Amino acid sequence: MNDIIIKSKEIKLDQFLKWANIVMSGGEAKSLIQAGKVKVNGEIEYRRSHKIKTDDIVEIEGFREKYRVIKN
């Protein structure tokens, strides 16, 4: 599991994917999310603006790693 440190209380899902270097652009994040390839805490999430908070787990279809959000 990869721990990703965020500086704020929460972060939008699409911004998190860029912050964690999972995707290179907002367009790539949007495509992954809208295609149903992103899970937050085990549930598929289709909203780019979904708020990710401390201890949330993000999974990407096709990636072996899981990403846990931790607060700095």
Note down, in words, how this protein is organized.
By secondary structure, the chain is of the alpha+beta class. The chain has one domain (2-71): Roll (Structural Genomics Hypothetical 15.5 Kd Protein In mrcA-pckA Intergenic Region, Chain A), CATH 3.10.290.10. 22% of the residues lie in helices and 36% in strands. It contains 2 helices and 7 strands. It has helices at residues 13-19, 26-34; strands at residues 2-6, 10-12, 38-40, 43-44, 51-53, 57-60, 66-71. The strands form 2 sheets. The protein has a 5-stranded mixed beta sheet with strand order 1-7-6-3-4, with no helix packed on it. Strand 6 and strand 7 form a beta hairpin. It is globular, with a radius of gyration of 11 Å. The two termini are 17 Å apart. The mean pLDDT is 95.
Please render the helix and strand layout as text.
Blueprint: E1 2-6, E2 10-12, H1 13-19, H2 26-34, E3 38-40, E4 43-44, E5 51-53, E6 57-60, E7 66-71
Parallel strand pairs: 1-7
Antiparallel strand pairs: 2-5, 3-4, 3-6, 6-7
Helix pairs in contact: 1-2
Q: Provide the CATH architecture.
A: Roll
Number of contiguous helices: 2
- Calculate the mean pLDDT score and round it: 95
Taken as a percent bin, the fraction of beta residues is 35-45%
Question: Structural class, please?
Answer: alpha+beta
Query: What would you give as the CATH superfamily?
Result: RNA-binding S4 domain
Task: Catalogue the unreliable spans.
Answer: none
The rounded Rg comes to: 11 Å
Termini separation: 17 Å
Protein name: RNA-binding protein
Domain RNA-binding S4: 11-70
Keywords: RNA-binding
GO molecular function: RNA binding
